[in-house]
UniProtKB/TrEMBL annotation:
<dbReference type="InterPro" id="IPR055383">
    <property type="entry name" value="FN3-1_GpJ"/>
</dbReference>
<dbReference type="Pfam" id="PF24421">
    <property type="entry name" value="Ig_J"/>
</dbReference>
<protein>
    <recommendedName>
        <fullName>Fibronectin type-III domain-containing protein</fullName>
    </recommendedName>
</protein>
<dbReference type="InterPro" id="IPR053171">
    <property type="entry name" value="Viral_Tip_Attach_Protein"/>
</dbReference>
<feature type="domain" description="Fibronectin type-III">
    <location>
        <begin position="112"/>
        <end position="199"/>
    </location>
</feature>
<dbReference type="Pfam" id="PF24489">
    <property type="entry name" value="Ig_J_second"/>
</dbReference>
<dbReference type="InterPro" id="IPR036116">
    <property type="entry name" value="FN3_sf"/>
</dbReference>
<dbReference type="InterPro" id="IPR013783">
    <property type="entry name" value="Ig-like_fold"/>
</dbReference>
<dbReference type="InterPro" id="IPR003961">
    <property type="entry name" value="FN3_dom"/>
</dbReference>
<feature type="domain" description="Fibronectin type-III">
    <location>
        <begin position="19"/>
        <end position="102"/>
    </location>
</feature>
<dbReference type="InterPro" id="IPR057587">
    <property type="entry name" value="GpJ_Ig_second"/>
</dbReference>
Length: 214
């Protein structure tokens, strides 16, 4: 066994062993001095001697068509693309055996772009505290959130960083302090962040509770 893949001799064809399928294809975006790297990882249900992997990376052009950015081959189950710029990409990976036969490709899409703003912010009152939980319209595992807090509403959203207090970056935040009192409004300013950039702020207003039982 090797990372859960079995060395299981499979029935061959007249040309050799059938290339294995690609599974669990993932991508991770990494910042690199104004440009970006993407680390692709995958595995196969079985390990076949002499198999390598063929990769094709396309980017969506302005007219909606796909343009080839890079093609590569590797004997490993991961590969790093460097020097990428913003855009929407499609990565395809397929196994190739020693006779040049190709297996079925697996594909995944990813975007190198700043995230969109949260579509909804759930504010849950607690005992002298408020829990803020942002939501995205489409789930993105690369996104976290910056939480900013103010006792008073900030009329100019562009002044949030000057007028509000930064709480931290996380998937949700519990605002709790001796200064939070039930019966009055408090203001959260929240934006989505990822390796590429930050979204616009979204405002949410909530109150704490004085019910110790929840």
């Amino acid at each position: 066994m090797d990372n859960g893949a079995s060395f299981d001799p499979q029935p061959g064809t007249i040309h050799g062993t059938v290339p294995p399928a690609i599974q669990h294809l993932t991508t991770e975006i990494l910042a690199e001095e104004g440009q970006y790297q993407v680390l692709a990882r995958w595995d196969t249900p079985r390990v076949v001697k002499g198999v390598s992997f063929s990769l094709r990376l396309n980017v969506e052009a302005e007219d909606g068509s796909d343009r080839l950015v890079s093609s590569a081959g590797t004997p490993d189950t991961q590969y790093r693309f460097r020097g990428l710029t913003s855009g929407r990409y499609t990565l395809s990976v397929r196994a190739v055996n020693s006779q040049g036969q190709q297996g079925d490709p697996a594909s995944t899409q990813f975007s190198i772009s700043a995230p969109v703003a949260p579509s909804f912010i759930e504010l849950t009152p607690g005992y002298f505290q408020i829990t803020a939980t942002p939501r995205q319209a489409v789930y993105d595992p690369t996104v976290q959130y910056e939480f900013w807090f103010s006792d008073a509403r900030i009329t100019d959203i562009h002044q949030v960083e000057n007028a509000a207090r930064y709480l931290g970056t996380a998937l949700y935040w519990i605002a709790a302090s001796v200064n939070i009192r039930p019966g009055r409004d408090y203001y959260f300013y929240i934006r989505a962040v990822n390796q590429v950039g930050k979204s616009a702020f979204v405002e949410a207003t909530g109150q704490a509770s004085n019910d110790a039982a929840g």
